[in-house]
Amino acid sequence: MKCICLAFGILIVVTLPISGQQKTKNTSRAEKTTVEQQLRQLEREWNDVIVRKDITALGHILSDDFILITATGTVRNKAQLIDSIKSTDLVVEPFETEDVIVRIYGDTAVLTGRFTQKGSYQGKSFSNQFRYTDVYVKMSHGWQGVSAHSTLMRQP
Amino acid sequence: MARILASAFLMLVMWVTTNTQTKAKQPKGGTVEQELMQLERDWSAAYLKHDTVTIDRILADDYIGTDGRGIVTFRVEEIEEAKPPKPGDSAPFIVLDESVTDMKVRIYGNVAVVIGRVVEKVKTKKEEGEIQYRRTTVWVKRQGRWQCVSFHGSRILEP
User: Fold this and answer.
1) Residues with Cβ < 8 Å from A87, sequence gap 6 or more?
2) Which CATH number goes with the domain that contains A138?
3) Secondary structure E strands in chain A
4) Which of B67, B138, B157 shows the shortest C-beta gap to A135?
5) Using the beta-carbon criterion (under 8 Å), do A75 and B157 form an inter-chain contact?
6) Tens of pLDDT along A32-75?
7) What's the average model confidence in pLDDT over B81-86?
8) B12 — phi, psi (to 5°)?
């Protein structure tokens, strides 16, 4: 009986850390899922503020050191991007990102995907398909976009 | 006197510890920025030399690349593309030379974002020419080693 108890004791001791590790693993996976959902939501907000021309909200989404590389290879900082969104020359229709892959590396996340953007510039309508890569960093006040890069998709 | 000596010894220990810690943060041969810029150049050189061993070391398992045509590639495809062309292969163009310039490195803990400009000399079936593109790469430091997890390129079409 003592042997059984001892064996049972060892089993408990062995089981507890595994169970603890499993719990940590599950918690970490759950946290990752939550962060992923937060980032996908932030991505949708970013799209929406462009359409609404909500410069204040856009200012909160982007970090001060934000850098965008456009589909024509031009480098734009936060102020330059805000200026171009603010311009009444540009009208963007509501759009959604698709095939989004979220990769999280601690307090940094990389999102890749594609989107179709329709709208007009100086009265001329456009419709383009892009692939993009966005990088977010968790700052003291939440996640912010630090980098964005888009490329025009080659038509098949 | 003993107290003064103890304090002096403590200060010496603190100085040595602090100095060693500062030095430990610096990679061999320069700053983290320099190390990452060198890795960008190493990757470029490895591609030209068909050095897939170096590329294999540089790219993370979860690497995702998006090129100037919007084509997405993963690690395996990137390594495959860097291999020497087989007889009879008809690639749309061959890269003869390339250089990465105007690099800017931003570091966020164990992750870094690097942007740069690439000038490529290419040869198509018809002619030789030059293309330029901008790139954004994301690097993650794992077990003391930086690896690239993301590449995105766009042809420079505006001056």
Assistant:
1) none
2) 3.10.450.50
3) 62-69, 75-77, 90-92, 97-105, 108-121, 124-139, 142-152
4) B138
5) no
6) 889 999 999 999 999 999 999 999 999 999 999 999 999 999 99
7) 87
8) -65, -45
Cα–Cα distance measured from residue B120 to residue B98, given in angstroms and rounded to the nearest whole number: 4
Flag whether pLDDT at A137 surpasses 80.
yes
The answer to whether A128 and A150 have CB atoms below 8 angstroms apart is no
- CA-based nearest distance B138→chain A, Å: 8
Domain tally, chain A: 1
Nearest to A149 among B104, B109, B152 (CB): B152
- The token pair at A87 is 């311009």
Alpha carbon of B23 to those of A128, B17, B35, B38, B107: distances in Å?
A: 49, 10, 15, 20, 18
Question: Does A108 sit within 8 Å of B158, measured CB to CB?
Answer: no
For each of the domains in chain B, give its residue range(s) and CATH number, in order of start: 31-155 (3.10.450.50)
Question: CA of B1 to nearest chain A CA: how many angstroms apart?
Answer: 47
Residue A125 β-bridge partners: A120
The pLDDT of residue B29 is 55
- Please report the pLDDT score of residue B90 as a whole number: 73
CB contact under 8 A, B149 and A152: no
Structure tokens that stand for B151 in this block: 């590449």
Structural domain for A85, as ranges = 2-152
Its ipTM equals 0.82
pLDDT confidence of residue A24: 58
**Chain A residues within an 8 Å CB radius of B140:** 105, 108
